[in-house]
Amino acid sequence: MNKVVGKIVPISQALHSRAPSNRDEIETLFEALGGGNLPVRTQKLSSATIIKKSKKLVEEASEMSFEAVFGRRRGVIEESADLIYHMVVLWRSCGVKPEDIWKEMRQRAEEMGVAQKLPKRDKKKSAKVIRA
Predict the structure, then answer these.
(1) What's the CA gap between 42 and 54, in Å, rounded?
(2) 115, burial (CB in 10 Å: exposed 0-12, middle 13-18, buried 19+)
(3) In this structure, how many other beta carbons lie within 10 angstroms of the beta carbon of residue 31?
(4) With contact defined as beta carbons under 8 Å apart, do 85 and 78 qualify?
């Protein structure tokens, strides 16, 4: 039986037994973060500074990467979930909506065939320090 915690409803219940997509999961989390009655740890993180939220995101990315390096599949899954959670918290703080991300990814896929990282922009060549 699905347990309702405050106003937060489990993802599966919120989506009416429809198999959720990654977008559904992220968008549901994004919307839940804007509501009241959040768990204490989420309230604390949501009210933290942008610097604290950014540090937490980097920390989770590092932890996920280490789990991958050590070949711990379950650790990669758990840390990836933590990473996505912190990323969505940071998006909300920056006024970035999930649909903004999906739009950017669609544009990249249309231009490059896959939503890959954009190529580095040409920057003015600066003087390089040459070491012997």
Answers:
(1) 15
(2) middle
(3) 14
(4) no
> Whole-structure pTM over 0.85, yes or no?
no
The residues near 34 (Cβ < 8 Å, ≥ 6 apart) are 92
Q: Which residues of 88-111 are buried (b: 16+ CB within 10 A; e: fewer)?
A: bbbbbbeeeebeebeeeeeeeeee
Chunked into runs of 10 residues, the chain (132 residues) has average pLDDT values of: 45 43 80 86 92 97 97 96 95 94 85 64 56 46
Residues 6+ apart with CB under 8 A from 43: none
CA-based torsion, 24, 76, 5, 12: positive or negative: positive
The one-character DSSP state at 106 is H
**What is the SS3 assignment for 19?**
coil
- CA–CA separation, 88 vs 33, rounded Å? 9
